[in-house]
Design goal:
Elements lengths: L10 H14 L8 H26 L2 H8 L6 H8 L7 E4 L5 E4 L2 H18 L12 H38 L2
Antiparallel strand pairs: 1-2
Length: 174
């Protein structure tokens, strides 16, 4: 068909995603805070990649300008660019377990990134007014953040497939 857009499949990215997802399955059993921090960072990387792909499909001007300049786009900026687009209710069908409903994906991602920042910086940073957190509480927070990140990553991957198909239809209908 003339004018049809076919995007190449990035198998290396898929392989990386699968590796990260397989490692995340056991994050609740980990007692290595640095392993968990690595998984949390990998969660953020996948989330950023999926948000960037989504914004590319929506033709978001700020995202497009940053991409044209080969500028690194922070997760925070991706959230700013996608704020209006991610505020509505999102439903994702699953093979097992029915439908996942997220009332406000933007708020969930913002809350997760705030927790991510707290976990990553808690290892070496402390407040002048409070004593440093003990390892057990840091480990517990890292596990819960990793588990929440894993859930959001799986959701974003499913949602990304859905929105990618919608973007292709729009591009191919022109």
């Amino acid at each position: 068909m003339e004018g049809k857009v076919n995007l190449p499949k990035n198998t290396n990215k898929g392989t990386s995603y699968q590796l990260v997802l397989s490692k995340m399955k056991s994050c609740a059993d980990s007692d290595d805070i640095f392993h968990l921090i690595g998984l949390i960072a990998a969660c953020e990387s996948i989330m950023s990649d999926r948000l960037s792909a989504f914004l590319g499909g929506t033709k978001n001007e700020k995202h497009k300008q940053a991409m044209e300049k080969n500028k690194f786009i922070s997760f925070s900026d991706l959230l700013k660019y996608s704020k209006k687009l991610l505020k509505g209710k999102i439903e994702i069908k699953q093979k097992v377990g029915g439908i996942i409903t997220i009332e406000n994906l933007h708020s969930e991602l913002k809350a997760w990134i705030k927790k991510r920042n707290q976990v990553i910086h808690a290892v070496c940073k402390s407040s002048n007014t409070e004593s440093h957190k003990d390892l057990e509480s840091m480990l517990s927070e890292a596990k819960s953040t990793c588990i929440a990140g894993h859930r959001l990553v799986k959701l974003l991957l499913k949602w990304s497939k859905k929105t990618k198909a919608q973007h292709k239809k729009l591009l191919n209908s022109k």
